[in-house]
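Weekend entry, working from home. Most of the wet-lab plans are on hold until the incubator is repaired, so I used the time to fold the two sequences that have been sitting in the queue since the last round of cloning. Logging both here for the record. First:
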Amino acid sequence: MIETEIQPRDQDTRLQVVDVLRGFALMGLFLVHMIESYELYWVSPKPGLIADTVFLLLMGKSFSLLALCFGFSFFILMDRAAKRGTDFSARFAWRLLILEAIGFLHSLIYRGDIIQTLAAMGLLLLLAHRVRSNRMLIGAAIFCFAGPSLIVQMIAAASGADWANGAAMSSSDPGMPIYLSGTWLQALEVNLWAGQVPKYWFFIEYGRLVQILGLFLLGMVLGRIGFFGRLREFRRQRAIALAIALVVAVALHFGREPLRLAFATLGYGPAAERAFWTLTGSWLDLAGTASWALLLMALYESRLRWLVQPFAPAGRLTLTFYIAQSAIFVPVFYGFGLGLWDDWSQATRLFVALAAIAFQMWFAAAWLTRFQYGPIEWVWRALTYWSSDVPFRRRVSGMGAPAQA
């Protein structure tokens, strides 16, 4: 019966630490978007202390953290269904198709949408779920993290392959002139397809698709072993992993440029050097992602939980906030709106972003005192089960706080 599948779940079944990770990742991604004026910063980059710091700490890390949480959420859905004696595979595939549609609508506002990519790649989890060996899945994740597609590009470029030595396909961007000075209808038209093409080429050329798959697999395995649910049990392992991740991140940050210069002396050409630089950057992002995740978990388990606890409500409204952020601030920066992409200083963008983050965190906490889900989360869940019986308003007794997955 559909009613038994969508009934409210007890709050104890929800792993709040994952909400903290998801909320932090969302706000980190939003901060990056604001500093880069929703991509328009790259028309004429102006490095500065604020931009450099935000990009170093959060760019590539926030997105990766969301992908990790996505893999974990998949495990939770499949595991709960299995405990009820049902197979959630078909419904999960349908759930991803709905998410793909939501992402498509969002991409008409902001072509940098990541929902579509996560939804499409999520279908691979249905295949991975059939692999029962965690060691095999971890091995596959490590293979993905090694950057195989970038290594292939690097070797091909060094070998003189024409396809690897040409200009990056993602560098051709017909959408940017429209975003700078076009009308809303022109932006909508280019976002239907032409403006999306460079994004997907970027994901392919920079190894992001393979990295996403690795993060999905890792998130699923962490769910299987109870990594997020048994915090005390994994405390020692987390402390060791955090120390290693921080050392690797610092070493890569300061060592990337010397490594690039050393690689350049080999004479393989600019395309191979670009692939090598991107490869080391992807490793830095992964080390940074691990550092953030483990640090947030350590804080959550300590007396300093109050520092990270406010991210949890926002983590339950991720989809609603992610789309609302674009709907509000893309018109602020783009030419069809206020066109402030080059008028606001980095300090102004930072201040506005931090104020918006504070508001979102307050709003999420207030919203969840009355409602079970964010509005878009509710629509997604209702369409998943093809039923409007999904509870939206919170019961007066306060019982039942179903999770957003």
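Second, folded right after the first finished:
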Amino acid sequence: MTHSTAHRILLAATLASLAAGLSGCRGDREDRPPRQFFPDMDDMPKFAPQAGNEFFADGRTMRPGVPGTVPFGRTDVVASDAWAAPFAADREALLREDDRTYRGLEADGTTYVERIPIEVSMDLLKRGEERFNIYCVACHGYLGDGKGTVGVSFNPVVPTFHDPKYSDPSDVFGRDGYLFHIIRHGKLGGDGRLTMPAYAHAVNAHDAWAIVSYLRALQASRNATINDVPEAQRQALEKARPPKMTPPAGGAQ
């Protein structure tokens, strides 16, 4: 056998092997299962959840609980335990039973809450600053004055949160619940279009209250003096303050 003949035979055998492999690939849609050369345990008899089952009279695979059954876990969740706090918080977030916390509304369902209904802490303020810098700064600016990179060219004009109406609880615009609602659901303009997009998809209820708390801190800082700063932090600020420039004798030359 010549070398060229052996080469042709090898090539033909290779093509035949490829053709045999391709025969197992069916491009058409059909009800027949694919060929299984090594089925292993892929086809074990089982009942799938939510599937039908002729064995039971109701035709369901999943069986309902016995009347009077009380669900329980291996360990009771005690809200006072530190390890259980995330689970308790998740449960509250899913149920959303507290309208004040999850909708910013009083019991009547129409009045915005005057003040933040959750505990305001330094951690909440820091979280609010972080979320504000991510979602709000582009339009409202780092100072909340409406002079963000996007806000300065926006139409209508982005309001400043230092307008007195946004800090007066007797005005609906000054209620914490109103700000919470706007953060989560956006603001409609006179033509029915959103002048501010809703952020409920990215900002949950807890983070929305955190942003509100940080807005209040920005408002408070607007007219604050060095005397409003705690003594320990005040000394550090005083040291960091640049020295006052003393004009030369005789005035500027």
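Plan for Monday: verify the second prediction. Residues 84-88+98-225 form a domain with the Cytochrome Bc1 Complex; Chain D, domain 2 fold (CATH 1.10.760.10).
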